[in-house]
C-alpha cells in the first residue's frame, strides 16, 4: 500500500442511518399522521422534529400525546398494531438517499473507511441495510444497542473512531438532525449537516458544512473539510 493509500485508510466517513442513509423518518411520521387524522387531529411536523426525531424509539410516547389531545383513553394495543403495519409498508419502500451509493463508491476508490452510527437498534438498521443491498458497505456499524448513552452523547462516535483505529479530526460525520450534529461535534469529528425534508428548516450551528444533497460530493470537497489530501 502506497503512502497516499495508507493516509486515506486513516480517513473515516460516518453516516447516520435514519435520515442520511435512507429517509425512513418521513415514512414513520406519515404513519403517525395518518393515525392522528383518523381522530381529527393533525400531528405537526415541527412537533415531531422537536420531540421525536433522532431519539431512540420509545423515548416519546406518541400515542399518549394523541390521548392527551383527545382527553380520552384509546385502544392502545390495536392502534399500535395497525400503525406498525402501516409503518412497515411505508418504510419498506424507502430507497437510499440520492448520491449515497456514489459517495460510498468514491470512498472505496480512495481507500477510505466508512461506518454507520445510529440511534436505532440493530434489529431496525440491519434488515433495512440488507434490503437496500448496503449491509456489506461498512467497516463498522454501531447502533443504540452498542452504547450506554445514545446521541446527543458522543459515545457512539468515540467508539467507532476507536474501533477503526483513526482519529476524530480525520473523521467526517453526516447527520440530518441537530441532535446528531451535536453528538458528532462533541466527539471532535468534522460534522456535516445533511437535512431531510423534515429538518431543512432546522439550525445546525455546530456543523462545519450543510449539504442539502449528497449528490456531487467528491474528493475535493472532502479534502477541504479535512484540510489535507483525501
TrEMBL record:
GO terms for molecular function: hydrolase activity. It comes from the Bacteria. Gene3D superfamilies: HAD superfamily/HAD-like, Putative phosphatase, domain 2. Coiled coil: none annotated. InterPro entries: HAD-like_sf (IPR036412), HAD-SF_hydro_IA (IPR006439), HAD_2 (IPR041492), HAD_sf (IPR023214), PGP-like_dom2 (IPR023198). Keywords: Hydrolase. Pfam families: HAD_2. This is HAD superfamily hydrolase (TIGR01509 family). It comes from Actinopolyspora biskrensis.
Amino acid at each position: 500500500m502506497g503512502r497516499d493509500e495508507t493516509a486515506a485508510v486513516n480517513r473515516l466517513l460516518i453516516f447516520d442511518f435514519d435520515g442520511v442513509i435512507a429517509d425512513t423518518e418521513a415514512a414513520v411520521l406519515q404513519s403517525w399522521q395518518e393515525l392522528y387524522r383518523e381522530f381529527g387531529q393533525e400531528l405537526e411536523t415541527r412537533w415531531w422534529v422537536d420531540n421525536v426525531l433522532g431519539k431512540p424509539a420509545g423515548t416519546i410516547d406518541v400515542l399518549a400525546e394523541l390521548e392527551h389531545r383527545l382527553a380520552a383513553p384509546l385502544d392502545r394495543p390495536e392502534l399500535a398494531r395497525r400503525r406498525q403495519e402501516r409503518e412497515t409498508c411505508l418504510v419498506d419502500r424507502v430507497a437510499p438517499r440520492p448520491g449515497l451509493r456514489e459517495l460510498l463508491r468514491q470512498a472505496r476508490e480512495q481507500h477510505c473507511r466508512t461506518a454507520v452510527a445510529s440511534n436505532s437498534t440493530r434489529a431496525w438498521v440491519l434488515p433495512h441495510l440488507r434490503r437496500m443491498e448496503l449491509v456489506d458497505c461498512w467497516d463498522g456499524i454501531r447502533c443504540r444497542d452498542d452504547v450506554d448513552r445514545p446521541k446527543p452523547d458522543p459515545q457512539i462516535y468515540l467508539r467507532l473512531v476507536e474501533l477503526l483505529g483513526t482519529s476524530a479530526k480525520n473523521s467526517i460525520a453526516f447527520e440530518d438532525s441537530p441532535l446528531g450534529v451535536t453528538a458528532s461535534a462533541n466527539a471532535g469529528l468534522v460534522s456535516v449537516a445533511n437535512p431531510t425534508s423534515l429538518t431543512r428548516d432546522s439550525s445546525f450551528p455546530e456543523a462545519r458544512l450543510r449539504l442539502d444533497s449528497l449528490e456531487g460530493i467528491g474528493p475535493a470537497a472532502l479534502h477541504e473539510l479535512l484540510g489535507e489530501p483525501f
